[in-house]
Amino acid sequence: MTDERQAVAPRLTERTPSMSGEELARTLVPPRQFDTASFDSYRPDRDYPSQGEALAKIRAFAEGWKPAKAGGFFGRGKKTPVAKPGIYLDGGFGVGKTHLLAALWHAAPGQKYFGTFIEYTALIGALGYANAVQLFSGAKFIAIDEFELDDPGDTMLMTRFLGELVAKGTRLAATSNTPPNALGEGRFAASDFLREIQAIADRFDIVRIDGLDFRRRDLEGHAVAFETDAALADAVDARLAAGESITFDDFGSLVQHLGTIHPSRYVKLIEGVDVIALGDVAPFSNQTDALRFVAFVDRVYDAQIRVLASGTPLDGVFAGDMMEGGYRKKYLRAVSRLIASASL
């Protein structure tokens, strides 16, 4: 990349976003590809009956927001079993868990939030625990996509946080997202989830969803990369001329810049951007940087932003030892999303 090229397109490294707690909370809505998600638009795969069963259970959970109907002699109906305040969808990639979670969010009344496990823990870290509890108190419903168990500290933090909100009347729904090529696919997450959340474990109904990734994406594929920075710069110029909102950053500089911004504000960092171009992409040597980039990729994917890059294909930035370590699940998800973002 030349300085002349950099002067044409704005850079993400020139942005230093700030957001109040209320602004952060307002970002907790389903990704835009799920703006119209509903129970009716979910299409269960008939080859996997658990998908239809999950849809029925999610519909039943949503009924809990409706007023109880009077019935029986003198308006006294039979008592119905008290429903648990939480539901947990357990399964692999691409079986519709996020669709169902978003549909449930759309069906929920009043104050409600939708975010990933990482988004909630980042927001709690940014606001402080007491302030976060105060901000979310009164919520009718909280949806947690991709509940993660990689960090015991974060898991127990969320356990305590959700426990306080449930005690105040909040209903919950969560998903796991275990790669289909992982040993014990899906079930490992559910058992660990139950063990970790301890005090509130009995408040969740566990719903298993089996099936194939509807995207049929090859997780062993590769993200497309430009052979040279000059070729990437030409592509950036072409998109600028077409009126697209595109940023152009050196990969190393962006990674360094991400370390100066709280992950809860990454959503603001990419606001209004259609395409992100990254030059001189290289594998990570530092796991802290790699995990920050994973959080950034999640926000980019949710916003459906196209990513162009030169250098190492983006799905190859996580070194072999990282892919075999304790954060393997996070890196596999990021690889899947990077492949998708490079082909949007």
Descriptive overview:
- The protein folds into two domains: 3-19 and 217-342, Rossmann fold (3-Layer(aba) Sandwich), CATH 3.40.50; 46-209, Rossmann fold (3-Layer(aba) Sandwich), CATH 3.40.50.300.
- The strands form two sheets. The protein has a five-stranded parallel beta sheet with strand order 2-3-4-1-5, sandwiched between helices. A three-stranded parallel beta sheet has the order 6-7-8.
- The two termini are 23 Å apart.
- Strand 7, helix 12 and strand 8 form a beta-alpha-beta unit.
- With 344 residues, it is an alpha/beta fold.
- The radius of gyration is 21 Å and the shape is globular.
- Helix 5 (117-127) packs across helix 6 and helix 12 (287-302) crosses helix 14.
- The model is unreliable at 1-7 and 179-188 (pLDDT under 50).
- The protein has 14 helices and eight strands.
- Keywords: ATP-binding, Cell cycle, Cell division, Nucleotide-binding.
- This is Cell division protein ZapE.
- Residues 1-27 are annotated as: Disordered.
- It holds the Pfam family AFG1_ATPase.
- GO terms for molecular function: ATP binding; ATP hydrolysis activity.
